[in-house]
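User: Batch of two.

Assistant: Item 1 of 2:
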Amino acid sequence: MYNLEKLSTLLGGKIKGDKVQKITGLAPFFQAKKGEVTFAAEDKFLTKLSETNATVLVVPKLKEYLPNKTYIVVEKNPRELMPILLKFFKKEVMFPIKAIEDSAVIGERVKIAPNVYIGHRAKVGNDVTIYPNVYIGQDVEIGDGSILYPNSVIREFCILGKNCILQPGVIIGSDGFGYTKVDKNNIKIEQIGRVILEDYVEIGANTTIDRGAIGDTVVKKYTKIDNLVQLGHNVIVGENCFIISQVGIAGSTEVGDNCTLAGQVGVAGHIKIGDNVTLGAKSGITGNIASNQVLSGNPPVNVKEHLKIKASLKKLPELIKKIKSLENFKK
């Protein structure tokens, strides 16, 4: 529980509405629940204040305030206050004391190799196999039957479901690339969310999945992710997807169920890809993609159309020569 008046003072704001004494945490605008705090800086949120279930809203001065909400009204743009806001809600991370902390809970038939660290209050399920040099952070949960290969890292508060596989060098829960400009300087925004891998997810070698800034990064059940992939903070990948090597998905993008992203696909942030979408290798995705499509290219088009475009490119030098000869003939 957090004190509302302390938060308001820290932000240099004024409380408007019911002065609730306690708040339970910070959450994204549309995912927030009763008792939680969220913030609204841009019109796309300020015009939809009635659509969030958050109890407390951090906002700039408004012409009109909705009833049944509590506001912290601030002078600055709320986005500039994010470093302060997230630092306030960031949970304390305890420093390692011993290889397997006394408060860690280890299930039955767990195999633990040398040089493994299992953090404070971590929970490891039954029949888990943990290879050398694995780091399992504070309050992490590992589901039954999971396999963690050497040098994989699961940072604090992250959750792995049942029968997950992490190949060597996987990093789960690294900080997302979150910064904001304050007085023209790049200031780090604390990343206080988690990564949640549902059941039967496999992550390839040296792939990194960033924790959510606010809220969680989620990979849903039976999805398989190849080597050298990066998922940014607050990405959601649906069920039964294939994410192939060297794909990069920027923050807050949602990928639907049964999708395939071929090698080196690049996906911009804050977009939605529907269900049953296949994206060809090296495609560049900068806008929403509707369900049930097979696309390729940058910008993406129907894969057959893209193959025709590539084939015609080979003829360009010959066409240029013909055009130049026609120009010379006219002269």
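Item 2 of 2:
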Amino acid sequence: MAKLLVTGGAGFIGSNFVRYLIGHTDHTVTVLDKLTYAGDPTTLEGLPEHRMRFVQGDVCDAGLVDGLVADHDVVVHFAAESHNDNSLSDPSPFIRTNLVGTYTLIEAARRHETRYHHISTDEVYGDLKLDEDTRFTEQTPYNPSSPYSASKAGSDLLVRAWVRSFGLRATLSNCSNNYGPYQHVEKFIPRQITNVLEGIRPKLYGNGLNVRDWIHVDDHSSAVLAIIERGRIGETYLIGADGERSNKEVVETILELMGRPRDDYDHVADRAGHDLRYGIDWTRLRQELGWQPRYRDFAAGLTQTIEWYRSNEAWWRPKKAATEARYAAVGQ
């Protein structure tokens, strides 16, 4: 049994990881979360108090972070500003949280010789051409295209430098696009699902041909745990599940699964700097750690996600109106 500190553990991916830990291990967890608009303590409701405690605070608060890191065996750093559209309108929170916050954590982990795992994104690699067969690997050069992805690229490089310069006991993972329960309704898949549930036609950026590599959040969680348990210190592991789909395909699949015509959606203006395609080569994860995803069937994972949103309107509905108002203000 280990004591894990999970930053951003009240957010979408972090809270699902906490739930996965509680359900699949004997570890205890402390969640550190600032509770910005994307953090929600209700994502942690129902978890046993003797296994999980919550601390509201900022990863940039050096005193708070130092005390928490000193009292834990492993730090798992999910906390991040992560919405591309928001980074285009105001990059400053992304610089502070994603860069200064990471620096604060790795300095504390270095002082206390604490095992550290860094959660990142495939967006640090930029994008791929729609008509090529290549995928991102651990050796792909960084080429971020938004303030969000640039700030995550910078945080990755900080961790790598601390491993080399100071012997930080760290691993990193870059994951493809997650979907599943507890995801904020501003994100692509839950926005479309909740639109259909409210009788609103889904919205599709541009021509909808941009491709993302989708992975169910439970598969992300199991992969992160495998890396913490068996990953080689200093190494980066790409997490994917062969889930490449165009945004058009995703919307049409959602509509079909929810009993609506596949063409029952509207096109809206494309996002500035919209990356064309992401694709993850997760060979290292498979070969070195023996990891396999559970949700290889995208439609099955999407069905589970749709049913969760259908059954949990009380969780997402209070956020929906404000989210749609923000999108409407910019014509999206």
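The radius of gyration is 19 Å.
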